[in-house]
Amino acid sequence: MTRHFYILPALFLVWLAAFAATLPAQAQPLRLQITEGVIEPMPFAMPAFVPENSAGNQYSEALARVVSANLTNTGLFREIPRSAHLGRISSFDASVNYSDWRAINTQALITGAVSVSGNRMNVKFRLFDVLSGQQIGEGLQFGGSTDNWRRMAHKVSDAVYSRITGEGGYFDSRVVFISESGSRGNRTKRLAIMDQDGENMQYLTDGRALVLGPRLSSSGDRIIYTTYETGSPRIALMNTQTGQRQLVGDIPGAMTFSPRFSPDGRSLVFSAARGGNTDLYRMDIGSGQIQQLTSSPSIATAPSFSPDGRFITFESDRSGTSQIYVMPANGGEARRISFGQGRYSTPVWSPRGDLIAFTKSNAGRFHIGVMRTDGSEERLLTASFLDEGPTWSPNGRVVKFTREAQGGDPALFSVDITGRNLRRVPTPGPASDPAWGPLLP
Amino acid sequence: MTLTSKTLLVLAALALAACNTPRAGGSFGGGGADGFGGPGGFNDGGISTGNLGDPNDPNSIAHFQQRIGDRVFFTVDSSSLNDEARSTLNGQARWLTSNPQYSIVIEGHADERGTREYNVALGERRANAVMQYLVSQGVSANRLRTVSYGKERPVEACAAQRCWDVNRRSVTAVSGVSS
Hints:
The structure holds two protein chains of two kinds.
Chain A: H1 2-27, E1 42-45, E2 50-51, H2 57-73, E3 77-79, H3 98-102, E4 108-117, E5 120-129, E6 134-135, E7 140-145, H4 149-165, E8 173-181, E9 188-195, E10 202-203, E11 211-216, E12 222-227, E13 234-239, E14 245-248, E15 255-261, E16 267-274, E17 277-284, E18 290-292, E19 300-305, E20 311-316, E21 323-328, E22 335-336, E23 343-349, E24 355-362, E25 365-372, E26 379-380, E27 387-392, E28 398-404, E29 410-416, E30 422-425, E31 431-439
Parallel strand pairs in A: 1-3, 1-4, 2-4
Antiparallel strand pairs in A: 4-5, 5-6, 5-7, 8-9, 8-31, 9-10, 11-12, 12-13, 13-14, 15-16, 16-17, 17-18, 19-20, 20-21, 21-22, 23-24, 24-25, 25-26, 27-28, 28-29, 29-30
Helix pairs in contact in A: 2-4
Chain B: H1 3-19, H2 61-69, E1 71-73, H3 83-98, E2 102-109, H4 116-136, E3 144-150, H5 161-167, E4 169-177
Parallel strand pairs in B: 2-3
Antiparallel strand pairs in B: 1-4, 2-4
Helix pairs in contact in B: 3-4
């Protein structure tokens, strides 16, 4: 009797889970579950965007290439090469001949069109589920300056990704990072910003002062970073529109570093080191008022807010080695959440709120990993000589981080939360300390 | 010119240099902070100039750096001073006490086998340990300043234990004339 009593609800749950899983599949046949990791990427076809006037010709291929690269880089999609296409998209509004695309095993077909007038352009796209023979969602169009043609391709990519995965996109976003040059012993480090795919890089500082660990505000309007321009670590706040900057968070006699914005952008949390002790402080940016959050005779650094602004996760060596803690955002009792082998550093709360990404070092190797916010279900996504400093994509599905091969230069890498899709992010030279900004409006 | 005579010339030059007392560099005209002068032409751009002197001269900076030793080393994640470090720092304290015209910046450094933020904190802890020790040996605290470079300024570049061992260090930098 008892046995039945337990098995029956268990079976019911399995059936319920299976039923729930089929529901979205029926509503939206073309569907990828990112959390499970994708063994077999979804095959898609991306014909050139149809030029709707002659000035549109020069963007017809370029737009398709950007969309295709974005989707391919997720590891969730595989492009069917143009040479295999049987069908031709010569008119954006003509009906799609699905059998041409089915014959080459296309599951998702993306069609686009582009027209250009002066320095203005108009970009349109549609997404089709080839197997069920129907369009997914309505067609969308984006208009803007031709200078922003890549952004429009990123917006098409975000819409396609969103419709198929049910997740927010992350392609139309930017990344701040540190561009490095010179010898290892006397590195020149410059603050730089670029698109998430490594394009359109611009320097934001001239390299005279050593700079470290930049972070973007949640609206992307400001950057906070550590600078040695006074000869000692200090925190600088830069306006991304005007380029104006100022030193903030002065604590007499202390080195201040490792700053990060609160989700509402109104305050900062950072580390201050003095007297052999590093504690966390919070500053209201408007008033400049500073509040001490921790007072432990140990190192507390690398703080990061939860997306609701209620908690701060940080690393501390108060137990003897670096471990990850969570405390209320105004200070108070900190709870240790990391208990595995090795040292845990640089915890970063996912923008979805569900996970904390971190750096772990154990037995001479470094890893980027994720765990739930209570420390359970730890998963290591990478392993190398030196991986550190994860930063989340706006949708909380991908992290970028710094990887340094043994004896090599640092470079930026990205990996998805299943750990199956590790890629190098192209930068013009050695690079470190990426910080991913929000999805652009 | 033979190699020997070249060497003699170099030695003579060094001996001459040692006769000069270390001093802060003077400015050449007024000027902007960028070092390219304002109305008065070039200036020193805030760069002080001083002779290191002859290491055989016990009051020279060269003696401090080479004979006494301007740096001490640490084990992984630690800021503890071992016997060798304390012995070096005792020598530094004696030199600093008898050369009160200098101010000192104690740099704390870490090896590359840790994350950037933690290493900045660890470097500060190391620099502070050295500062506290020098103060305990009679050096006035107001002559001392600390700065942490974390893992940003390794002295050896190789990605191997022997380099990390010398990169985990503090360096006592004698910086011009004390104000």
